[in-house]
């Protein structure tokens, strides 16, 4: 039975900080928990966006692929889509988007997803170059990234909002990924300007946190030595 109130998360952003970038869940396994989501591949291999059950990867070369069932990830969010229309937006950047999604509040204390479909006058995204073992830290790996820009494109922005009290498990605030309708461009969103589009929202009352307990590096790592909060804020 599909549970539309549940956000399923594999891994945490905290485990990426010291460079625990091994893929610990397959796409086939992840898709058992939803049809909509975001994530990254092993070694921070590109940026993922899952729409209507199809997993797309925007890689560091500027290509967008549909990944196979055996593609592995250290971190991903996924849910079964049950978005409800909230509002239309015009000439909106990140601040206007956030204000609309938060309904004018400065923060929220629950997880929710936001989907914006429309025409974007400008989008700037990034995709990290795949790292190979032995993996560098998140901060070092994230420096090796490609930046992409697009103008006047139609697409979908998919965002997950995490409350401040969960910073470390996820990034506090909005985590935005994007894909054009023609699949020519995507990635982790750095900036955007929405010309016009519809914003829909889905609120979760349950976070199902799945940890890679079969990965010895994760199980044995001492996170007390890592500056988790600051590194995540800087990298994201």
Automatic annotation (TrEMBL):
Gene3D superfamilies: Hypothetical protein, similar to alpha- acetolactate decarboxylase, domain 2. InterPro entries: Acetolactate_a_deCO2ase. Keywords: Acetoin biosynthesis, Decarboxylase, Lyase. GO terms for molecular function: acetolactate decarboxylase activity. It is an enzyme of class 4 (lyase). It comes from the Bacteria. Pathway: Polyol metabolism; (R,R)-butane-2,3-diol biosynthesis; (R,R)-butane-2,3-diol from pyruvate: step 2/3. Its EC number is 4.1.1.5. It catalyses: (2S)-2-acetolactate + H(+) = (R)-acetoin + CO2. GO terms for biological process: acetoin biosynthetic process. CDD domains: acetolactate_decarboxylase (cd17299). Pfam families: AAL_decarboxy. PANTHER family: ALPHA-ACETOLACTATE DECARBOXYLASE (PTHR35524:SF1). Belongs to the alpha-acetolactate decarboxylase family. This is Alpha-acetolactate decarboxylase.
């Amino acid at each position: 039975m599909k549970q539309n109130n549940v956000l399923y998360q594999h891994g945490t952003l905290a485990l990426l900080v010291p460079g625990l970038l091994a893929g610990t869940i397959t796409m086939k396994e992840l898709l058992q928990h939803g049809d909509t989501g975001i994530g990254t591949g092993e070694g921070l291999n590109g940026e993922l966006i899952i729409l209507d059950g199809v997993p797309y990867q925007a890689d560091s070369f500027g290509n967008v692929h549909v990944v196979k069932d055996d593609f592995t990830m250290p971190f991903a969010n996924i849910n079964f889509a049950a978005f409800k229309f909230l509002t239309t937006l015009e000439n909106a950047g990140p601040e206007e988007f956030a204000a609309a999604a938060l309904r004018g509040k400065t923060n929220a204390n629950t997880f929710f997803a936001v989907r914006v479909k429309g025409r974007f006058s400008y989008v700037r995204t990034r995709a990290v170059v795949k790292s190979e073992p032995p993996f560098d830290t998140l901060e070092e790996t994230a420096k090796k990234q490609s930046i992409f820009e697009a103008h006047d494109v139609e697409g979908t922005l998919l965002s997950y909002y995490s409350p401040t009290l969960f910073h470390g498990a996820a990034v506090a605030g909005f985590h935005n990924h994007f894909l054009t309708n023609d699949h020519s461009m995507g990635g982790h969103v750095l900036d955007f300007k929405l010309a016009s589009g519809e914003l829909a929202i889905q609120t979760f009352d349950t976070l199902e946190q799945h940890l890679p307990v079969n990965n010895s590096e994760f199980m044995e790592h001492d996170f007390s030595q890592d500056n988790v909060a600051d590194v995540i804020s800087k990298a994201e």
